[in-house]
């Protein structure tokens, strides 16, 4: 599909019937996540194409310089009043283009998963919860939902969610994940049955083997 930004792909090893679009965290390279998922999970999902869009390089206020980012942040943990609305909307539209690319290739939206780490998780969550497509699910790894972004939601979400978070995360504290989940279930009446919530007590702002294992189990379940 023409007009897509740079991205990396793990091609399916069997007939292509599902896709995972994975967004990196702030300051990360998609190459890092491409390598990690290729090593840890790709072989478990032979019919799945993994797609890793590269975040655009933009000015990040926290660093006072340019870095790969889906939207601007001023500090970590992010402040509740922080919301780079125009960049968030641009990034959501970018994700939607990748979804459409897969749909045009014949993949049922119900076989497409969005996922991401940290800022990529926040972007994936917002893209999934506002998409006009009925997606297979969305996975948040050490992510959060900006409180001001919740106004972008207009109805009770029906997309299955895997939410994984470190109990010792100081950059995106566990409380931010809990607050986002509570808002979805309380304010938007999302069914708690749609959510798989996993906490790794000693984990900081990174991934661990148990988290990758849980991610793989969840992916196999919703894409079976």
From TrEMBL:
- Note the InterPro entries from the entry: AB_hydrolase_fold, LYPA1-2/EST-like, PLipase/COase/thioEstase
Q: Name one GO molecular function term.
A: carboxylic ester hydrolase activity
Name the Gene3D superfamilies on file: alpha/beta hydrolase
Origin: domain of life: Eukaryota
Q: Name one GO biological process term.
A: fatty acid metabolic process
Give the UniProt keywords, A-Z. Answer: Fatty acid metabolism, Hydrolase, Lipid metabolism, Serine esterase
Catalytic activity field = S-hexadecanoyl-L-cysteinyl-[protein] + H2O = L-cysteinyl-[protein] + hexadecanoate + H(+)
- Pinpoint the Phospholipase/carboxylesterase/thioesterase domain residues: 7-220
Q: Where is it found, in Gene Ontology cellular component terms?
A: cytoplasm
The entry sums up its family as follows:
Belongs to the AB hydrolase superfamily. AB hydrolase 2 family.
Summarizing the function annotation, the protein's role is:
Hydrolyzes fatty acids from S-acylated cysteine residues in proteins with a strong preference for palmitoylated G-alpha proteins over other acyl substrates. Mediates the deacylation of G-alpha proteins such as GPA1 in vivo, but has weak or no activity toward palmitoylated Ras proteins. Has weak lysophospholipase activity in vitro; however such activity may not exist in vivo.
- Write down what this protein is called: Acyl-protein thioesterase 1
**Organism, per UniProt?**
Pleurotus ostreatus (strain PC15)
What does the record give as the organism's lineage? Eukaryota, Fungi, Dikarya, Basidiomycota, Agaricomycotina
């Amino acid at each position: 599909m023409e007009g897509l930004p740079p991205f990396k792909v793990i091609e399916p090893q069997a007939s292509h019937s599902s896709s995972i679009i994975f967004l990196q965290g702030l300051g990360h390279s998609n190459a890092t996540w491409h390598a990690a998922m290729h090593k840890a999970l790709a072989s478990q999902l032979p019919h799945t194409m993994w797609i890793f869009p590269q975040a655009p390089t933009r000015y990040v206020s926290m660093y006072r310089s340019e870095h790969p980012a889906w939207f601007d942040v001023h500090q970590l943990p992010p402040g509740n009043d922080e919301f780079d609305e125009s960049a968030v909307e641009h990034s959501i539209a970018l994700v939607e283009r990748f979804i459409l690319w897969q749909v045009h290739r014949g993949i049922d939206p119900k076989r497409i998963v969005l996922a991401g780490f940290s800022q990529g998780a926040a972007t994936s969550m917002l893209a999934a919860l506002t998409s006009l497509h009925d997606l297979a699910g969305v996975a948040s790894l050490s992510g959060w939902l900006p409180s001001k972004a919740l106004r972008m939601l207009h109805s009770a979400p029906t997309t299955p969610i895997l939410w994984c978070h470190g109990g010792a995360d100081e950059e995106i504290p566990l409380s931010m994940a809990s607050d986002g989940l509570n808002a979805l279930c309380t304010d938007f009446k999302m069914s708690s049955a749609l959510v798989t919530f996993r906490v790794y007590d000693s984990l900081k702002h990174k991934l661990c083997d148990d988290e990758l294992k849980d991610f793989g189990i969840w992916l196999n379940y919703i894409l079976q």
